[in-house]
């Protein structure tokens, strides 16, 4: 079964069963951000995780199997993103990218923030002038190797 | 004076004077992330801020003036970014974008995180397995208008 | 059901039943511009709105359900648009874009017109030399945050 | 003199003299939107208009001459626009484009809104929840010729 | 029925019945160029025209209906065109475009040749050194509006 | 001397001397369309033609020499064209291209209209409803070789 | 029947029947290069040629019919080619293109090698250091028309 | 000295001295095609060859030196080529590419024609119906390695 | 059978049977890297190899047949790659490409590393600070031909 | 001083002084591959390394200073590369990329080869059938984080 088809079944089941991402995350002991990432086809689940998700979402066996496959990542977001939610992150890179590069180098030296040894979270922060979205990205600093 | 030329002079003066972004930020009472963004040509300073930065960095008067101009933003980062520091943020959008969209909608409904009423910070988090880069993005949630 | 399929059914039903956008808009108490936007797959309806539209257009239940899903926006217009109706708006941005930017900054300062807290209308204005299309766009001004 | 150089001189003089677009527009009896468009290099002035603008902005004779040249339009906005002010109009086309096409055809039949026999205005609309940008676009409807 | 499918049926029927474009054009009182344009999915027919074409080409009712729909134009020619017949017109624009612009402005002033209030014809011109293709394009001059 | 620089000098001299393309064309016994094409850097002049144009436009000797060089054609029009005059011809290809291909094949068989053994003209056609631009393109039909 | 489907059937039949391109070419009295070009969907066969090929390859009648249709050429090679065999020809154009242009102009004057009145062949040339591929391209020189 | 500047000087000297490519080729004992390729900046000359060319074309010492540098190849032809001479070779790849691939595989098996161990020539072939350009490409067949 | 379908069946069978690439490679006496390349549709197997693979993986006869077809290579990796594993190799080319070119020329002269007479391997190298991926690429040096 | 200018001076001095990359590498105790990478502007040198290189290559002080700046990487190789040496690595990714991904996952699990904690070497391997280029890439395996 193709990853795209599993994703479709996951979304449909989640909606039908009235579950939230944190419910599914709780069932496998993972964060909601990682769980959503994996079930949207961008990371593989372990066989045990896949079984638990399959039970919770009442997925067929071949979908459970497909959840454990390491995916070709990054195939679902067109670039530049046409969807405004995603485009704003692209715009943040256009506008704030130079400052991100400068600050990382000033604080760490020559290297990068890993996007592999990486985690993130999305939180709703209450604010009287309108609630705010807080996205925390956290990646290991990798210094450039000299040899 | 062109924004690109001011940026060049700012970088040169900052290096010559041995200043850090937070030193410059302190002089105008702003965060280091916003200060770096503005001095890299991606936001205008108020005339007072520009004067203070000009004094600190010993910039000529036309550079001070140029710092107050509202810029055409986003012109310095090629897309996709060729620089690995910036590319990793692009990759995060490719891989974690679908989860970002899902979680924002689940927590807030139909709308976006603003990239205008927005702030961010970059912090070094110590970790025995290797220090980590933490980027916090914080933007107002804007619900889609229906009319 | 995919958004594209719902859109196809909506268009077909609208034509078969001889309805206009304002007829459908009237049934849910919305403007014709927003109603067309939503039924063309670019905005979600509330469950109540979806039920009313479903009754009016005699849509099956899964189509009604699909109308309430928050879409991936912006996927149906290729850029640059090949269709002349849409291309003219693209051309307006090419030719009048610099003036739009200048005037918004002169009247409001540094910031943007929101495309989220936004509404628009299309009206036919009679003119002896040939009737005219009037498009009114109205979005909240969002000032850039400094922090 | 190149259009880009004239534009640079116009912007510099406007700032130095503390003029607004409507001041310049008043001097030639045109709207501020058209005046900004022309002085940003996207439309030619008549010789009389160019003389008046030249006097007001204290431009050299070759700049005045250059203002009357019919330009290659559309060369200053990269597509997709990297600047957020301009990008929002691009996004409006992505999201609201299908509705614009539908409504124009429903109200007028097969044809387009002209971007040549076209005018627009930008206005600040006060609003207790935050002032709003109103852009009115008005173009002649051109029906497709059948022959 | 999709426009692409109607086009396929039209081409097939035209071939099967041994008709030429001018035969079909004659049946609806239009030029062969416009008739070919419409039947290739780039313009809508009136209901009467569609009925006549449907009878002549023995099309099913839903194809007749589809012929009256206003299309999304311009979706069938990839750009740059890979087909040599179409590429030559693209090349003409590359090579002769600057002269076209200069001559239109010299003869008419600032404005364009309309591609909407437009007609064209294709004719075979006999020539002893090899017959020639003559394409006549004729569009209303639209002067740029100043306001 | 670069072609672009010659073009700049030609345009400047033409304007200064109050000449029209047909005046220059007359001096060398060519059509105004070909003359404009060549002087805009898209075709080489013979040495005699270059001398005559040089005298008429009071060009320096190295510009006269440069006019005789066979150019790299097609380098001045960006694709898709951002200028509306040129874009309309691009749009004609998008919308009317399929009909052009069909009609050429129906009248001539498998082959193309040459863009090399090619000529064109631009004419102003008076019309009470607004004068019209008539562009006549005329190219030798080249049948595909079978071997 | 679509050209792509005919091509698929031709390739399959050729393999099944153990034929070579020159066998098929011999049956219709054409060169192997043209025959391969036509049967890969890039040129139309005459009805007689199509019948002969149909008999030889045991194709169904609608495939035979489809072989006579003038194709939209150039749709099967993505550019730049991802396949190394085809990419090498693309690279030859990148590296040797300037010399090709210079030599054609030196030997013929201003004009081009036709790709329509054109033939080519592919030959295996034995060589003790490794056999060589020889591709001969032969096209009529077309001088640019001046008018 | 940059390759582009050397090329400019070579072209200028060749024209001033009335030399042809085969004259320069003769001076270094190479073919005219390779000589043109190298002097247009697409291949390095040996020091001896560079000295001979420098003497013949009266080039300064730093130009002679620059002729021996191994270049970044392929930087002067934009893709797709806008120049019609070069475009025709691009089109040949679009139209005849599938046949080239098939014939090379049929005659040689799995592998490619080298574009490195490669030579070519351009020749004028007289023909009563119009002289023809003959381009012969000859590259070593390289079989794909299996390991 | 399409290559993509064969690949799908191979992956599925390999997983079902619990085989590793080196198991399959062993069955045909090839390296695991070449075997994976071929079974992922990027190289043809000999009929004998295909039979052995077919037996081992229990593939149907038409899949075995399809494995022997010379493929259109390079069609499965979008460029730039969206998948992070593949992107890193793309990034290596961006960052280390200039050094690769310099070192190859310094050690070998003007020419390239063949990607046809080429082999590679992937190995896991143990390292107390974290195991490392070692990719060895080995291609014949091909000197540029001068003629 | 811009990185590009330093690179130019380094290349010129290296050639003038008859040095090889390993000579420069030896002076700073680094590998030739890293040294070439850094001096071609793709990595920063430490101040001590920069001083040593400056002495060896007789560079001015501002060039020495510029060598220590962390660069925007990846700006000198256009993609796809037009130079054949670099293109071959791009092609390797097209053809062998799927196998690289499969083998890395089979040997290591879900994760990537780092391009930051990475080193490489280029070596000449003698071979009677023609010497071979051996490129060894060695990067730390980074497992994807789950959280």
TrEMBL record, chains A, B, C, D, E, F, G, H, I, J:
- The residue ranges of the Cyanate lyase C-terminal domain are 75-147
Keyword Lyase in record:
yes
The record places the active site at 88, 91, 114
SUPFAM superfamilies referenced in this protein's UniProt entry, alphabetically: Cyanase C-terminal domain, lambda repressor-like DNA-binding domains
Q: Quick check: keyword Lyase in the entry?
A: yes
| Its EC number(s) | 4.2.1.104
Q: Its Gene Ontology molecular function terms?
A: cyanate hydratase activity; DNA binding
Q: Which reaction does it catalyse?
A: cyanate + hydrogencarbonate + 3 H(+) = NH4(+) + 2 CO2
Supply the alphabetized keyword list: Lyase
Role summary: Catalyzes the reaction of cyanate with bicarbonate to produce ammonia and carbon dioxide.
What is stated as this protein's family in its record?
Belongs to the cyanase family.
Q: What is this protein called?
A: Cyanate hydratase
């Amino acid at each position: 079964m193709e990853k795209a088809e599993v994703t479709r079944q996951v979304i449909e089941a989640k909606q039908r069963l009235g579950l939230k991402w944190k419910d599914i995350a709780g069932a496998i002991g993972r964060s909601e951000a990682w769980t959503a990432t994996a079930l949207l086809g961008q990371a593989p689940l372990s066989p045990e995780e896949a079984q638990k998700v399959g039970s919770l979402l009442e997925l067929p066996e071949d979908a459970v199997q497909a959840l454990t496959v390491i995916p070709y990542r990054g195939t679902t977001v067109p670039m530049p993103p046409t969807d405004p939610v995603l485009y704003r992150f692209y715009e943040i890179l256009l506008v704030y990218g130079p400052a991100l590069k400068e600050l990382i180098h000033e604080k760490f030296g020559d290297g990068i923030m890993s996007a592999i040894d990486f985690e993130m979270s999305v939180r709703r922060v209450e604010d009287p002038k309108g609630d705010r979205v807080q996205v925390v990205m956290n990646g290991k600093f990798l210094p450039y190797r000299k040899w």
